[in-house]
Specification:
The chain is α+β, with helices and mostly antiparallel strands. 45% of the residues lie in helices and 15% in strands. Strands 1-2-4-3 form a four-stranded antiparallel β-sheet. Helix 3 packs antiparallel against helix 4. The longest helix is centred in the middle third of the chain and has 18 residues. The chain is globular, with a radius of gyration of 16 Å. The N terminus is likely disordered.
Length: 136
């Protein structure tokens, strides 16, 4: 938001959620094109999934309505193999992570940009990512 700052953005997201507003649609998008997996989590769902995700090492990002986790592997080949598995699943879901890789370390942030925050789609991808990490 130009000139609005992160605080205003978070306040608006909170107000939209509290009012039960529907998720925003990206420019050129349509409600029909949005999967049910991209909808906001209810407060109850959000509290439960965040407990589960935090228990598996994910953390909430205070400045954004997103989740973050860092993965460490034995070497670059393992890290890249993991990223490839995640990339294939992300492409199937049409939901792509923000990530950063240096040698054996992979940092991942999940957020639904089209909705402006954390959604069921992020949770589903995070669960897949956790399974992929242990199978490498």
């Amino acid at each position: 938001m130009p000139g609005g700052g992160a605080g205003l953005r978070l306040a608006l997201l909170g107000a939209r959620r509290a009012a039960g507003a529907a998720p925003r649609i990206a420019a050129g998008g349509s409600r029909a094109a949005m999967s049910s997996q991209s909808h906001w989590l209810t407060t109850e769902e959000r509290n439960q999934v965040l407990l589960d995700l935090k228990a598996s090492g994910w953390s909430e990002l205070g400045e954004r309505d997103a989740i973050y986790k860092e993965f460490n592997f034995k070497n670059f080949n393992q890290a890249f193999g993991f990223m490839t598995r995640v990339a294939l699943q992300a492409e199937k879901m049409n939901h792509h992570p923000e990530w950063f890789n240096v040698y054996s370390k992979v940092q991942i942030t999940l957020i639904s940009h089209d909705c402006g925050g954390l959604t069921k789609r992020d949770v589903k991808l995070a669960q897949f990512i956790d399974k992929a990490a242990v199978s490498v």
